[in-house]
Amino acid sequence: TRFCRGVGRTAQAKNRHPNGQGRWPVKSARFILDLLKNAESNAEVKGLDVDTLYISHIQVNQSQKQRRRTYRAHGRINPYMSSPCHIELILSEKEEAVKKEPETQLATRKPKKTQALRSGTSS
């Protein structure tokens, strides 16, 4: 309910909601893009292949709110809190698939009880 006021209407949101209201998280997306660029440069420094990297884990946790104060009419003061977060991002290299060797089945003798159970006959 905190961030839902003042949402404009757009044609791209008409299939999602009947009134066509929608918006895009520009600030959040910018932070994620900056983190990805930073992770890419870190991978280059470490000598990893940047083209094979993929996001193996991403997690966003709330962090402690930062307090400020806003001054109101009649000498009142209200809190003016920010909502920061911790973003955890792990990139991994795609491993190349290795072909599995064909299994060579060895002819093993099974006990007669096991053979009888498999064939459905009773002795």
TrEMBL record:
Keyword tags: Ribonucleoprotein, Ribosomal protein
Entry GO terms, CC: cytosolic large ribosomal subunit
Top-level lineage group: Eukaryota
InterPro entries reported for this sequence: Ribosomal_uL22, Ribosomal_uL22_CS, Ribosomal_uL22_euk/arc, Ribosomal_uL22_sf
Biological process annotations from GO: cytoplasmic translation
Any GO molecular function: structural constituent of ribosome
Region Disordered: start-end pairs: 1-22, 99-123
Ribosomal protein recorded as keyword: yes
Recorded family membership: Belongs to the universal ribosomal protein uL22 family.
Protein name: 60S ribosomal protein L17-2
Source organism (scientific name): Anthurium amnicola
Organismal lineage: Eukaryota, Viridiplantae, Streptophyta, Embryophyta, Tracheophyta
